[in-house]
Amino acid sequence: MQKVTDTLERTLVPVATKIQQNKVLRAVGNGFASSLTIIIVGAIFTLLGSFQWSAYQSFLASTGIGTILSYAPLVTTDMLAVYIAFLIGKSFTEELGLKDNASFCGILSLFAFLLMMPLGVSELQGETTVEITSALGLRWLGAQGLFTAIIIGLIVPLIYAFIIKRNIVIKMPDGVPPTIAKSFSALIPGFVIAILFSIIRHFISLTTFGDLNTFIYGIIQEPLTSLGASPLTFVLFIVICNVLWFFGIHGGAVVMPFLQILYAAPALENLVAYGAGEPLPHSIIQAGWFVYANMGGAGGTFGLVLILAFMAKSKRYKTLGRMALPTVAVGINEPLTFGLPVVLNPIIILPFIITPITSFLLSYGLTLLGILPPLNGVTIPLGTPIIFSGWLTGGIPVMLFQIVNIFIQVAIYYPFTKVLDSQALAEEVQEDTIQTGEPKDASVPVNG
């Protein structure tokens, strides 16, 4: 075991550290994190307007509330790529050391993203197709345009920083207000970006793809979505995340940008389909990370904390379990990870990896069999309580599976926790004997 640990520490940890410090991945992660408000608002409105209960839907239709609830998703869920283009552009500019210019570059990223949008929409009315050439369709503003938004949000700041750092700017006199001065300093980068992306748009229009979004979707996004649809990909992320936690590295921070890149678009597509009352196209989305695999935090530790809180005999672990229970219930398990500890603990690392894999694969199999519904695409923010998260993302069936999953977690963790608890109890008995001079029966629980 020690040889395996030493080998992983020499090879995996340096790579993980570099990934965690990578500016591009940090920018992507921060950009998506900043969009959570928009994502959650759109998801909640979609849920409120989509509960498939005939009496409820009749009430929404008769009162006009259904129409009111339909407005917000159109400019949140259906236009998420617009927000992502700005937020990633802004975040990456900050990572490049130009924090004061971040908002300007975010706007230029959004400008470049919209510049690449094909104009024109058509609709079949009766036997006639009506075309509006000056309209901007929603197709590439939502899930299908996410990769374009990410790429442009990363390229524009590089161009902007290249020009600004070489001081190729229009300088205003000292008396000009700072905001006006910064606006003028962004003019030259803005013109360069406008010309460059206009040229790109023109030349792509001459190809069979027609526009940049179709090119990126066909060449990059669709293959990556297919990669994410494999359960082996999801399992690989679980293993990497939890092995990194064993070495004290925040595994979630390392893998989350990759999860967002792979699973943000499928989640949005599920949410749109759910709102439209259509079959959900994807069985694996990012919400499964929290709802199924890592229920209670990395390692799927809610069952573990229940064992410690209510079944441990040692005072140390009983106290730790009761202290950590409220935070683990909402997916924050650092008190447990560093208090047990999970870090560099060879006894607990095996269930720490096996538990989330088992939970995920079981949920995936039940979804394929039609026993569990595909998750509806609602994004679960950190702090969402267990059970409630299941109800939000899949209704009563997913909520009930989470309860079953707690027992699965307990069953896997129990024999390993029993070893740790017995060791801790023996140490406490020995310490008590030294302090009091009287031996204490180790089989008797220590009050805690």
Keywords:
448 residues, mainly alpha, two-stranded antiparallel sheet, 19 helices, disordered C terminus
Let me know the largest β-sheet.
2 strands, antiparallel
Class inferred from helices and paired strands: mainly alpha
Name the helix and strand elements from N-terminus to C-terminus, one letter apiece: HHHHHHHEEHHHHHHHHHHHH
Rg: 26 Å
- N-to-C CA distance: 34 Å
Estimate the helix proportion, in percent: 55-70%
Average pLDDT works out at 86
User: Could you give the count of β-strands?
Assistant: 2
Instruction: Give start-end ranges of low-pLDDT stretches.
Output: 444-448
Query: How would you describe the shape?
Result: globular
Work out the count of structural domains: 2
What topology, given as strand order, has the largest sheet?
A: 1-2
Tally of DSSP helical segments:
19
Q: How would you describe this structure to a colleague?
A:
There is one protein chain. The protein is mainly α. It has 2 domains: 17-120 and 131-228, no CATH class; 230-448, no CATH class. 69% of the residues lie in helices and 4% in strands. The protein is globular and about 85 Å long. The two termini are 34 Å apart. Residues 444-448 have low confidence and may be disordered.
Protein topology:
Elements: H1 2-21, H2 23-34, H3 36-50, H4 54-63, H5 65-75, H6 80-95, H7 102-115, E1 119-125, E2 128-136, H8 146-164, H9 178-185, H10 187-205, H11 212-228, H12 231-246, H13 251-275, H14 287-293, H15 302-311, H16 315-328, H17 334-339, H18 349-368, H19 388-436
Antiparallel strand pairs: 1-2
